[in-house]
């Protein structure tokens, strides 16, 4: 004999009249929402971290380019040569 409080698959997302079914309904919705929310927040955190790593990487590249230009300028001033014209 089936329990009258057991919800079927069709009833999981609907509020049904008896108390046991409502508890099952809300608990299933909470568990599914918790899992989806955890996945979404973990992905959002991962995307934010990767975005800041990308910004840091681009800033490091720009810094390296500027330092290379500065070093070339210092070298050419020290030895009186123009590295850009010697290509």
What does the model show?
This protein has 87 residues and is an all-alpha fold. It has one domain. The chain is 70% helix and 0% strand. The protein has one helix at 19-79. It is rod-shaped and about 95 Å long.
Could you list some keywords that capture this structure?
rod-shaped; 1 helix; mainly alpha; 87 residues
Short description:
The chain is mainly α and 87 residues long. It is built from 1 helix and no strands.
How far do the termini sit from each other? 90 Å
What is the overall number of helices? 1
Report helical residue fraction. over 70%
Share of β-strand residues: under 5%
In N-to-C order, the SSE pattern is H
Question: How many discrete structural domains?
Answer: 1
Uncertain stretches: none
Radius of gyration: 32 Å
User: How confident overall, as mean pLDDT?
Assistant: 74
**Main sheet properties:** none
What shape does the CA trace take?
rod-shaped
Structural class: mainly alpha
User: What's the number of extended β-strand segments?
Assistant: 0
């Amino acid at each position: 004999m089936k329990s009258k409080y057991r919800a079927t698959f069709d009833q999981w997302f609907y509020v049904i009249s008896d108390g046991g079914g409502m508890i099952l309904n809300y608990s299933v919705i909470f568990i599914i929402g918790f899992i989806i929310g955890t996945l979404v927040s973990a992905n959002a955190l991962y995307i934010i971290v990767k975005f800041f790593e990308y910004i840091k990487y681009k800033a490091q590249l720009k810094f390296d380019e500027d330092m290379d230009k500065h070093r070339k300028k210092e070298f050419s001033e020290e030895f009186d040569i123009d590295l850009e014209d010697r290509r």
